[in-house]
Amino acid sequence: MSRQASLREVLEHRARLLARAEVERAKLGEDFGALRGFVIWVDRGREAAAYLRAHPLAVAGAGVVLVVVFRRPLFRGGWLRVIRRGLVAWRGIVALRALAARLGR
């Protein structure tokens, strides 16, 4: 008889603990609901960082283009200079692709 009473007490204690856990879970959900927007932005930042890590060639190419374009005013010296800068940027991107291919092997 005492074994059944002990089992019943354990089951009642378990039921109380489960109910308490449910209440605490709901309270945590309410407390952290205000942080949801912030967490979404953090997740987006992490995804962007992962993309940039996975595509270093895109980052390097964009950097080369920015350096070439913003080094001096774009149209100073006419179209020939603009075309030359574009060629330099294109050659840099091609060289970076070749380097990335060699490092990727």
Describe what you observe in this structure.
With 105 residues, this protein is an all-alpha fold. It has helices at 2-33, 36-54, 56-70, 79-104. Helix 3 packs antiparallel against helix 4. It is elongated, with a radius of gyration of 31 Å. The protein has two domains: 1-34; 43-105. The chain has four helices and no strands.
Condensed summary:
With 105 residues, the chain is an all-alpha fold. It is 88% helix and 0% strand. The protein has helices at 2-33, 36-54, 56-70, 79-104.
Topology summary:
Layout: H1 2-33, H2 36-54, H3 56-70, H4 79-104
Helix pairs in contact: 3-4
Helix content: over 70%
How far do the termini sit from each other? 73 Å
- Roughly what is the average pLDDT, rounded to an integer? 81
* Rg (C-alpha, Å): 31 Å
Strand content: under 5%
The description of the largest β-sheet is: none
The beta-strand count equals 0
The chain-level structural class is mainly alpha
Total DSSP helices:
4
Uncertain runs with pLDDT below 50, 5 residues or more? none
Give helix and strand order, one letter per element, not per position.
HHHH
* General form: elongated
What's the assembly state of these chains? single chain
Give the tally of structural domains.
2
Core attributes:
2 domains; 4 helices; about 100 residues; mainly alpha; about 90% helix
